[in-house]
Amino acid sequence: MSQLAPAADHLLGFARLLRSAGFAVAPEQSIALLRGVTLLGPRSMEDIRQAALATLAPQPDRRGDFDALFRAWFWGDAELAAEGDSDDETRVKDGNAAPEQEAEEPRSEKGGALSSGAERLGARRFAGRGSTLAAFGRALPTALPVRRSLRSVRTRSRGEPDLRRSLRAIARTDGDIPKPPKRRRPLVQRKLLLLIDISGSMKQHTADHLDLAHTIVRHAERAEIFTIGTRLTRITPSLKAADRDAALARAAGFVEDWDGGTRIGPALAAFLAIPRFAAFARGASVVLLTDGLERGGHAEMEIALRRLSTRAHRLSLCTPLAADPRFRPETAALRAVLPFLDDLVDGSSLEALTRFILSLARPAPAAETIWRKAS
Amino acid sequence: MSRIESIAPSPEAVAESLAEQRYVADEGLATAIFLAIRLGKPLLLEGAPGVGKTEAAKVIARMLGSELVRLQCYEGIDAAHALYEWNYQRQLLAIRQAGEHEIDIYDDRFLIERPLLKVLRKPDASVLLVDEIDRSDHEFEALLLEFLSDFQITIPERGTLAAAARPVVILTSNRTRDLAEALRRRCVYHWIGYPDAEREARIIALRAGDVAEATARAVARAVRDIRARPLAKPPGISEAIEWANAATVLEKGGSPWPEAFRRAIGVLVKDEEDLAYLAPDFDKIVEDALS
């Protein structure tokens, strides 16, 4: 097939359109689409749609965008707006769904509210904490909690006998094995999950927290960062860039609920309801940066934290309010969740937070014990 | 190729042969299976737990008349579990027994076949199911990538073994993490969602043992209602089938209808908090579904 049919050109155009909208479409997928459509007939538009879905593999959470683009390209449907989610549910956004470079493009249609969020963060300037964070970043890889890996590596000295290599050595040296090879399961870093409250009441700390999050993503082997406010947003991919300002600006543009109300409970419930996200918490060190001031009842927050605590290796809540020596966990919400927390500590400054995160691997008495003594 | 063509001439034919195996596939799934078989690409099925991903692989194997070779993934799975392993004890024994004679210790006798090698040797007669690939780690995904693109395995002592034909491969994932883009793009992809109430009723009627049609329909409606709530573990299709079965058994044992559903709730919702959350509304859900 040296010359492509005009119809094939149209199909390839659709693949190009998807790419420009931020979908990852590989050339072999375009080829599979052409072959698939040929195989299916195609007898109808539905055949082309099914073939496109199967071969181009759009992420399930971007199916809405995909369908809209499909309609626009093949049916000439001008209406490109994505369907809105229902408002009473906590909205969830996953930073991974769109590739990093084009993060802003598919959302340009939503306009106003978004750009103002970026402006707000742009207005906050960070100064004088570079050295704290740099030292923190250097210390981080060795300071985080570890677990035994399930995969083994070859070692010279300690470990269990490596039968496979032993046998090869025996065969090679004719029955002689001067030094039996060993294998051992090394230590790997536990996941670190950082949940940042970005509601209005935490406004003055948000910039610090994002800075911290960026350092963690850059230096920890496995870390996931989410923001919680009225919505839940995964910002890990946006923070991956080396340049701090660029990474923070991108994350800022991606989050849509800056300085809004607080719905910690529903946001955490949404986090736990998505298996992929909930899996991040399993066996992880979970650090919640929030003041725990929940709007409305705290029943949902209590349930969510209980569930989180059963999954997590260690569940910590860092609240800026604890900087005050008179602070006691006496709000109804904090009292209710205290039994589930491993730590309830001061999160008012970068110094306090970095010191705490670096101490995560060291055992500490449960939060309840500490605060019972204090009061 | 002609055998494959005769088994899967069109998506509708695929859907029909699946239905013969008592598996109800929607158009999307039938098309994806058809394309995967005909294009010779692996089929990647994603979806919530309990929507019938593994079951789909089983019926595809039955439909093709092949043996299903299943590789269950877990964190830390590696080449020795997936590809092949040497039987070291036997090799050592053989060396000792041979004494002065020459012996090939890399003979087939000493090779333990693991799922991928097994499929490679009989590509026409087997279907490979790589189950819950999201549970494995990135290293294993990379290993699989090599296998899936060329369908060959390199054993250092023996050289490279390549499959004579392209075997049918099905991967499933619960989407507890993102799969590598490189893996996704090699596959034909389908997201299995929860079916609508009507199709679910058909599935229950087909799969459950001795369930009246009205019961199946009521169960499907109730389950759809329950899934719409924010639960820690929404019930899958298999749970719905079990619930229909359990309620029918209880009803035959003398419990009247709404009561039988309530008493069988333990097979549908398996989380204490979810049960507590549902309890106040449960009677209404069942009533609505029965009406």
From TrEMBL, chain A:
SUPFAM superfamilies: vWA-like (SSF53300). Residues 84-116 are annotated as: Disordered. InterPro entries: UCP010256, Uncharacterised_CoxE, vWFA_dom_sf. It comes from the Bacteria. Pfam families: VWA_CoxE. This is VWA containing CoxE family protein. It comes from Aquibium oceanicum.
TrEMBL record, chain B:
GO terms for molecular function: ATP binding; ATP hydrolysis activity. Residues 39-193 form the AAA+ ATPase domain. CDD domains: AAA. SUPFAM superfamilies: P-loop containing nucleoside triphosphate hydrolases (SSF52540). This is ATPase. It comes from Aquibium oceanicum.
